[in-house]
Design brief:
Number of domains: 1
Distance between the termini: 46 Å
Number of strands: 10
Number of helices: 8
Helix content: 25-40%
Strand order of the largest sheet: 6-5-8-9
Radius of gyration: 18 Å
Strand content: 25-35%
């Protein structure tokens, strides 16, 4: 088995897409059922539906060295931060740099595993896996946002390219080409929503990933102060949070 991260031929690990410790914390066991569904924008009827237990929802192209080494460290750094958020939602207001880094790194790693191991087309390039392995850091142009969600789902995710944005009037074709290779993967863990989004060469192209309802979420990576964030204003469900993400130009020369 050639590992998707280190690209070396090694013994296969058992990388759970939803980590076992997280399933136990949230659901009490690893037997919960998870549904992966691939939707077509051209066909509203879903297809390629796969139902698996949390124990069998694994990705097989990760070696034991990566799984039990640096990936496990990311998990263990994230766990106490998540537990603190569960016990006190006010902690969202005072996440320090280490907390934000722990959440963002875990979210990026988990987003990679979701896309690699689920029944959805591969929208995350191999270079992102290689970058995480070599640098233990998020790749340039990846953003991580966090929010609260009213509808209580234990564990859920959504994944797709970023669906919409505002193009500069003189480069609409280039903009749509970049949009087609963007991605966003939104996760829900009980009442906590975490969204990982990527738009290539955003700064060089004069674009940025926007989140329109700034009073409902916080950009934790790279850290962006949001003085209007209000703990009392939550998203109704994961779909609302997932869709509240688009691309806008850094300047006002654009067209829809």
């Amino acid at each position: 088995m050639v590992c998707i991260f280190c690209k070396e031929e090694k013994e296969r690990g058992k990388e759970h897409i939803w980590p076992r410790w997280l399933q136990i914390v949230v659901e009490g066991n690893t037997k919960g059922m998870h549904i992966g569904t691939h939707f077509s924008m051209l066909n509203p009827n879903s297809y390629n539906i796969r139902i698996q237990s949390g124990e069998s929802l694994v990705f097989g192209e990760v070696c034991k060295d990566c799984n039990n080494g640096w990936m496990n460290i990311i998990e263990m750094n994230f766990k106490p931060v998540l537990l603190k958020l569960f016990s006190d939602k006010n902690h969202l207001l005072d996440l320090n740099r280490i907390d934000r880094q722990s959440i963002a790194l875990w979210a990026f790693k988990t987003a990679l595993m979701i896309n690699a191991g689920s029944n959805y087309r591969k929208i995350i390039p191999q270079s992102h896996y290689t970058h995480l392995y070599k640098n233990r850091a998020l790749i340039k142009d990846v953003k991580v946002d966090i929010a609260q969600i009213n509808e209580k789902k234990k564990l859920s995710w959504r994944q797709s390219p970023i669906e919409f944005g505002l193009a500069k009037s003189y480069e609409k074709e280039k903009f749509h080409n970049l949009l087609s290779v963007s991605y966003k993967i939104t996760m829900q863990i009980k009442s906590i929503g975490i969204r990982v989004s990527f738009f290539p060469s955003a700064k060089e192209s004069g674009y940025e990933i926007d989140f329109s309802e700034k009073n409902k979420n916080i950009r934790i990576w790279p850290h962006t102060k949001n003085i209007s964030f209000n703990l009392k204003l939550n998203y109704d469900n994961i779909d609302d949070f997932d869709l509240d993400c688009g691309i806008k130009p850094a300047h006002n020369t654009w067209q829809a």
